[in-house]
Backbone:
């Protein structure tokens, strides 16, 4: 049986605002990188730049983890994607564009650290202030992927019976996020808001565990064979 891809949200943190580089070469590089996404060249005073720690290879509080090779993929997919302001799970406004990204390594921790530019329009003023003032400091990434691998048995979690967050011997079960298909957007959210959601396409907004239950039920439901008796229709 084929599984539908999952749409998933993963939490990160806003690292902060980037000051304009002192170095001429760096300043030029930043401007060129931004202007690769604009229709007319912007001046440095026209935008603010923020750095995000968007996702990483550690198990998060929702028991999911990106393997390093998937982070490399995400890193390549992020530039060009929108940054959204997420007031709640539904309402989102695009506020900026990711224009470059790199992998950051800190011993065993690997994370995707993109830069995003936000235009200094009247409309974005409060948004920028909220980031500068530390009100918006959490981020989340929306993406779709094909395989939620079980960390205990290595099978697709929808096809096994292990429960993320539960311990099996010395192992705690978690999702390994494999086969990323697409990065949809990055979001900035107010601190403490609900971030990660594990969402099968047709049932947006379920928490991870419920979504897994839903997918498992579907997986284990026998396929119904319906005889359409076309000969009886006429
Ligand atoms: Zn398992």
Residues:
């Amino acid at each position: 049986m084929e599984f539908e891809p999952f749409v998933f949200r993963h939490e990160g943190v806003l690292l902060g605002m980037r000051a304009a580089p002192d170095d001429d070469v760096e300043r030029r590089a930043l401007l060129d990188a931004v202007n690769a996404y604009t229709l007319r060249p912007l001046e440095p005073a026209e935008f603010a730049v923020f750095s995000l720690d968007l996702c990483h290879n550690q198990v998060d509080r929702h028991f999911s983890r990106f393997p390093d090779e998937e982070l490399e993929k995400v890193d390549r997919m992020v530039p060009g994607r929108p940054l959204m302001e997420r007031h709640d799970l539904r309402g989102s406004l695009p506020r900026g564009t990711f224009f470059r990204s790199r992998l950051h390594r800190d011993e065993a921790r690997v994370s995707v650290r993109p830069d995003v530019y936000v235009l200094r329009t009247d409309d974005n003023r409060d948004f920028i202030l909220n980031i500068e003032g530390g009100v918006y400091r959490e981020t989340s990434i929306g993406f779709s992927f094909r395989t939620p691998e079980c960390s205990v048995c290595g099978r697709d979690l929808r096809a096994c019976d292990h429960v993320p967050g539960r311990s099996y011997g010395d192992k705690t079960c978690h999702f390994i996020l494999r086969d990323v298909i697409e990065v949809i957007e990055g979001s900035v959210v107010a601190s403490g808001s609900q971030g990660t959601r594990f969402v099968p396409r047709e049932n947006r907004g379920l928490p991870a565990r419920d979504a897994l239950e839903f997918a498992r039920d579907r997986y284990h439901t026998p396929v119904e064979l319906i005889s359409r008796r076309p000969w009886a229709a006429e």
Q: What stands out?
A: The two ends are 33 Å apart (CA to CA). The CA atoms of residues 22 and 37 lie 23 Å apart. The longest strand covers residues 175-190.
